[in-house]
Automatic annotation (TrEMBL):
Residue stretches spanning the membrane: 12-33, 64-83, 95-118, 130-147, 159-180, 195-213, 234-256, 276-296, 308-325, 345-363
Keyword Transmembrane: yes
Keyword vocabulary terms for this entry: Membrane, Transmembrane, Transmembrane helix
Keyword Lyase appears in the UniProt entry: no
Tree of life domain: Bacteria
Entry protein name: YedE-related selenium metabolism membrane protein
Secretion signal span: none
Pfam families: Sulf_transp
Amino acid sequence: MVQIHTGGFWKKYGFITIAGFIMGVLAAFLVYLGNPKNMGICVVCFYRDIAGALGLHRAVVVQYIRPEILGFLFGALISSLIFREFRPRGGSAPLVRFFLGVFAAIGSLVFLGCPIRMLLRLAGGDLNAVVGLLGLLTGILVAVYFLRKGFNLGAARSVYSSAGWIMCLFMLLLLFFVIAKPPFIFFSQKGPGSQHAVIAVSLIAGIIVGILAQRTRFCSCGAWRDLFLVRDAYLFSGVAAFFLGALITNLILNATVGGFIKVGILNQPVAQANQLWNFLGMALAGLCFILAGGCPLRQTIMAGEGDIDSGVFVLGIIMGAAFAHDFMLASSGATAQNPAGTLGVYGPLAVIIGFIFVLWVAFTMRERA
């Protein structure tokens, strides 16, 4: 039985349920305001766009500094300072976390979306995301097995306060770049990278999500981990509410504006229909996220709280996204000529290498009684 805490549902689950619903509504509404279809908030995709804007990859259709990402971290920083939860810490296998971030990004970009976007794709009628969800759950279950067997990256320790501010300063620099648009920063003129809400709206929406996610500990992967590992539904209630908020918003927009829900497999926005690698890509991503301690949104939030290990994981995501496009690993979305989308040339090989690395880490980094 799933554990329902005493004291009443709303006392324990009310805030995270409301917060998740608001986050889902914002994610779907950002599409109406200009973000790519089924991609109001995709943390890995947005880090991919940032990597492109910095010139780390050459895919001209996915280059933009996404203010939502900056807002996530700023919101977490503001919230953690107000509630005295800003605690600079680190030193828990940072190099391992970096490569977990790399392979989490590669797996996500083979599927074409992180766990957050998987929920948004489901809310938009993309049935490929059902296979992605099954893959994610499989990866999380494998990770839970290793957690039960003693997997541990080691304890973090307190570090100098200045170290905890580094990611915040990096995001401030990115904010300057997206506003000033210096000539050495790249911005897409077509494709998903050219589709975005205005900077101020994106930033404010990101800050709201960052504050809510920091206060509730929202995690799209930790929700399933807690269900499987300790039978606790706290985080899951937030994830379910996020999906419901996005679905209801899409239904309203579809009825009033049109084009926000399209049920099917082919010709889905920025999606590919190779189900084997949709499954395996998300399985790899789920395994990486759980072993590293949280989904990409959760890692960004913890970086805003001063966790430099999460900051290293985020840098791994950025580099993994760059590798995915530089080395022809990432999939491509559907086109008029190819409604099923295209699997990256070397994407399957990269996923296999990722599984080898991550399973080696999982087997060898276990505490023994």
